[in-house]
Amino acid sequence: DEELQGLVLLDDYQCFACHQRGVALSNIPPKQAPSLAWASGKIDPSYIERYIADPLHVKPGTTMPDMMASLNEVERRAAAQQITHYLVSLGTTVFERQALDSTAAMRGREQFHSVGCVACHSPRDATGVELLQDDSVPLGTLAQKYNLDGLVAFLENPHAVRPSGRMPNMQLSH
Questions:
Q1: What is the mean pLDDT of the chain?
Q2: Would you give the distance in Å from CA 87 to the centre of its chain?
Q3: Residue 97 confidence class, pLDDT cut points 50, 70, 90
Q4: 3-state SS of the chain?
Q5: Which of 42, 63, 22, 55 minimizes the C-alpha distance to 167?
């Protein structure tokens, strides 16, 4: 119903972080932010910096607000760089790109379309182009974001980084 949909959106966008809940409290647990320490060594620092500087452009559809909208371009880039350095310092692993195994990638494509990913994310054509962009949760360009080990770790245990459980744990094995 529309009221429940409204409550879900209020929680998704964390409106209650700044605005009073009022009389009707939501029974939906609030969405928790992703674990920032998890990203170190798994997500490309240049992606983190771009995302912090302009989240809505880097990942259309994200619920991350543009917190630096009031800064000019130079200030925005400097702040994003400093925050990125801090986030990377939270971990001990250095980010490295890894070569992809084309045979494993083809098996992964089959898994993406068979284990339930397409319930939320757009199915892809043979070249990887999303077929239902308007009706799905955008993934963005994953190759720009994760290294292979990082994406594998996320898919094996998405709740380690996204504790709200919006991304279901599909019980995938290595």
A1: 86
A2: 15
A3: very high
A4: CHHHHHHHHHHHCCHHHCCCCCCCCCCCCCCCCCCCHHHCCCECHHHHHHHHHCHHHHCCCCCCCCCCCCCCHHHHHHHHHHHHHHHHHCCCCCCCCCCCCHHHHHHHHHHHHHCCHHHCCCCECCCCCECCHHHCCCCCCHHHHECHHHHHHHHHCHHHCCCCCCCCCCCCCC
A5: 63
Helices (H) and strands (E) in the chain, counts: 7, 0
Residues in the chain: 174
Per the model's pLDDT, the better-predicted residue between 7 and 40 turns out to be 40
Residue position matching structure tokens 């490309």: 44
pTM (2 decimals)?
0.79
At 118, list the tokens.
């397409």
